[in-house]
Amino acid sequence: MDKITIEQALIASQSGSAQSNNFTERVMKSIKNKRRLTLLFNIPSKFAKLAMTLVAICCAALTTGAVYAAYQIWLAPSVEVQPTGQNQVLATFTNCNTIASARYEIRSGSSLNSKEISQILQARCEISAIQTWENSQNTNNNQLVLESDEAYLVTSVSGAKISLQSSDLNKDVIVTNKAQFFVNGISSSADSIQVGDAVFYVERNTYNQSGGSPTKSDLLAIFKMDLPVEAYSVNKQNLVIERTTCLGNPDDSCLADSASIDVYPRGDEAAYMANTPESGDLYEVQGEIVSISAASFTLQGSSGALYQIDTPQNIIDEFNKKDSGNYGHHTIQVGDKLSVFYWQGLDDDHKAIKADQLAKVSLLMQTGDNKTETTTKY
Amino acid sequence: MEEPKIIKEIINGNAQAYAALVDRYHTGLIIHCESLVNDRDDAEDIAQEAFIKAYNNLSKFDNTQSRFSTWLYKIATNLAIDHLRKQKRQIQVEDVEALAQTTEPAFIKNEECAAVRQAVSKLTPPEYKEVIEAYFWHGLSYEQIAAKMNKPTSTIGTYIRRAKLQLKGELLWTK
Hints:
Order of helices and strands of chain B: HHHHHHHHH
Strand content of chain B: under 5%
Helix content of chain A: 10-25%
Largest interface: A-B, 54 and 58 residues
Largest sheet of chain A: 8 strands, mixed
Radius of gyration of chain A: 24 Å
Distance between the termini of chain B: 33 Å
Oligomer: heterodimer
Number of strands of chain B: 0
Structural class of chain B: mainly alpha
Strand content of chain A: 35-45%
Structural class of chain A: alpha+beta
Shape of chain B: globular
Number of helices of chain B: 9
Shape of chain A: globular
């Protein structure tokens, strides 16, 4: 194998993320902004159906002296939830992109009832629909931004100025004659927005060539939402986590996204890369630790199946002794929940993982249900 | 979340999942572009465009043929060549491609990674360690490092050149 350059070695040894999060933010904003309407039809899943609903359904109406065609950009979604035990529900969706049903885990200790869970999931459908609309409006040089992941509460409406409040931000937006208004996905007029409403808004930002903060922001649309503002809040949304089939292990389910602490390899992307083989597929399991020994541990997946995982060294003991202090002194014990990724061939025993097949082990964590609460073990 | 799963999520419509890939690769990609076009601001623009282009074509990416990072860097190299052409610079594509190889993504073993980090920790004077970490690991530009260390930008360049020489002496498996 050819020698690598010192620059390559240094880049490959980078540990964790770099500090320049602004770059990531800029890229993500550009991605949201530059997606074209035609792209909607190239993405097979969530966007196609909503693109088709982007059709005028009503005739012209007369409001504030202007003729506009009322149209509906999403059909009102509804969600039915059915408890399935172990803090989980099966949700069945109507008019939520292309999602028909999905399984969700409710954070233990939370006191959500079925109605609240339905609302949280309905809110997700609506937010996704707004994002889809936003994408559909983009042309080459537009800079559209859906501000905030959570809804704002309208605190005052004074002439052209609408004052908004989120959990951590106050914001005034100025309505111009180019702004559009939607109530539950149906086009409406400015006077539909009232104090106490839950809204999202989309702006068109203008940047100078070097990026950075926008030099100009124009209000493009305000969406008045169907549900109380709390249903759209990050705090509430964090309480309901989707469970999907574990990668390669369809009988077990895994949290689709969860906070975690790296146990092996330790916080080092290069080390993960080094564990990536040239062939084989990535498999995943999440489960509760039922036993730990010096060179292995056993997990019980959601189906009850046991997974024997050999480790190259005593990774759990090493984490507890050397690294736990850097992570809130959380130590790993029997009963804790781990996520394990591993590389195997199709014919391997997917419940017996050898040490050299191990790609990543993480301790599953959960964030607090408000911004100040400490992260705890899942 | 692991890379194949992230890519699957993005293709299924979760655009936000792409942020994890941008976070993971942007420092190295900007350095790669900077080495080709010799300008930090242009390099950041090209890296940004490469990420966007990769995103828009992600459904065509075949992860059985190459790693995402290899594909991403190839996109960036082509954009850099286009950029140099637009600037009407006299370039030989072969030269740029050869230069591109010096900063293409490499995959090193755990022990090599540990050796690099140890060699960096032993750099003397300690300012060399500081500039290498800031540039290669924290994603800062020469100008940002210069401002942080209260030194002229040209000094940062000198520090990095000398530090790389020291590291090459220590890490004989590199060139």
